[in-house]
Amino acid sequence: QKEVEQDPGPLSVPEGAIVSLNCTYSNSAFQYFMWYRQYSRKGPELLMYTYSSGNKEDGRFTAQVDKSSKYISLFIRDSQPSDSATYLCAMSALGSGGGADGLTFGKGTHLIIQP
Amino acid sequence: ETGVTQTPRHLVMGMTNKKSLKCEQHLGHNAMYWYKQSAKKPLELMFVYNFKEQTENNSVPSRFSPECPNSSHLFLHLHTLQPEDSALYLCASSPAVGGVYEQYFGPGTRLTVT
Question: Which residues of chain A have pLDDT under 50?
Fold first, then answer.
């Protein structure tokens, strides 16, 4: 079983729709959850960052974490064509400086917003 | 220059060549990372440096050799690569190592091994 599962898509929705992107994970030690957006030929750009369970809102974006279900979501309201990109979920445990302190990523979901 | 920069942006090399990738961060961070991004696969962590010291080598073949001369610069030296090493190589930095710190990525170097 992979540590982080994410549907690669593509997910195609009309402009203005609410988009729901999701990841599931298996490692219960994960405490920090991030969403990155990656445009074609660019590096990933940090969108949202949450700790433990709960919701976090930033403009049109809402991140949700349900640790009991090992499930995280990113919602995009009033989606725009400029939101078309690949969305990567990433997560990590509380690092102590030893071991792997990088992030564990999902494969990314390719999102297309149709004008 | 701001953020994390990487050079070159594109690189084509033969299997017998030696080349180096360069990363520079202008964020005052102390930790730097190399990741590999292949098509249809998750980003794979390769190396982690904290205050210029390597803290993680994620079972990377020896044909990839990292170097971190200071907290702002990170290199990845490449030699006798294989075609399956063709990928996007991403550098990232964070204030320090540890899951609590957000990582900021550069634009990547698109490597093609012929």
Answer: 96-100
